[in-house]
């Protein structure tokens, strides 16, 4: 190992980056510190994962209540469903912000898993990033968000919210058409003095924007996403 009393420190040096190999051979002070740090990061990941789930749970609960009330009587206004779309979109924004914080701690755990734990289990494969200790140190000194708000929105839309908002859209279309068969659907879509065609145009543009945010191609910066590899590889390699 490099002399710990020296002012010179090269995190990319073989004896500094391969601490996972040392953890297999003997117990080191740094290995113990990293074990405690890893447990702490895992706990933070779990806490922020629960916060994401709580936001989704409230969005689903509110959506269910709105759908139930909207179709309980033909006298109930259709725009309650549009209010539901707005409220669920607000929850989407809240969850996207929480996802950015969640990703900070998830990224740290992935760095440790890839470069420390994986190397300890199989040192013959080496490490993913030779400068991982310096990068992790910089992030501990000055924590930074790893993904943009746009990427966080796209992630939560793909995983949860596009489906929820699609259900509300289908329910609204059904509410102003089949649920009111004796009225023209453009007339039914009116809100106070706002013409039905204007309401439909605004709703249509909103969903076009949602689809653009969700599927517009862009470079992903979130670390550790389950996006690559074949699901059968694990069984074949066992």
From TrEMBL:
Residue stretches of biased makeup (Acidic residues): 1-10
Q: Which UniProt keywords apply?
A: Membrane, Transmembrane, Transmembrane helix
Region of interest (Disordered), ranges: 1-22
Q: Does the keyword Transmembrane helix apply?
A: yes
* Transmembrane domains' residue ranges: 78-96, 160-180, 192-216
UniProt keyword Cytoplasm, yes or no: no
List the protein's name: DUF2270 domain-containing protein
């Amino acid at each position: 190992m490099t002399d710990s009393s020296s002012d010179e420190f090269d995190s990319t040096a073989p004896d500094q980056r391969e601490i996972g190999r040392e953890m297999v051979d003997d117990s080191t002070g740094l290995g113990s510190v990293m074990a405690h740090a890893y447990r702490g990061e895992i706990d933070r990941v779990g806490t922020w994962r629960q916060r994401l789930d709580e936001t989704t749970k409230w969005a689903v609960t509110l959506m269910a209540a709105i759908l139930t009330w909207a179709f309980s009587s033909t006298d109930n206004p259709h725009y309650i469903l549009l209010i539901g779309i707005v409220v669920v979109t607000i929850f989407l924004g809240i969850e996207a912000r929480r996802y950015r914080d969640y990703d900070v701690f998830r990224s740290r755990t992935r760095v440790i898993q890839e470069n420390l734990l994986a190397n300890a289990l199989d040192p013959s494969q080496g490490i993913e990033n030779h400068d991982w200790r310096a990068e992790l140190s910089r992030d501990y000194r000055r924590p930074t968000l790893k993904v943009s708000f746009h990427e966080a929105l796209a992630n939560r839309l793909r995983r949860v919210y596009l489906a929820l908002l699609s259900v509300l859209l289908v329910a609204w279309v059904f509410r102003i058409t089949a649920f009111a068969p004796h009225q023209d659907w453009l007339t039914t879509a009116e809100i106070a003095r706002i013409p039905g065609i204007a309401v439909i145009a605004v709703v249509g543009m909103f969903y076009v924007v949602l689809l653009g945010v969700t599927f517009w191609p862009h470079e992903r910066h979130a670390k550790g996403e389950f996006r690559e590899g074949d699901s059968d590889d694990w069984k074949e390699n066992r």
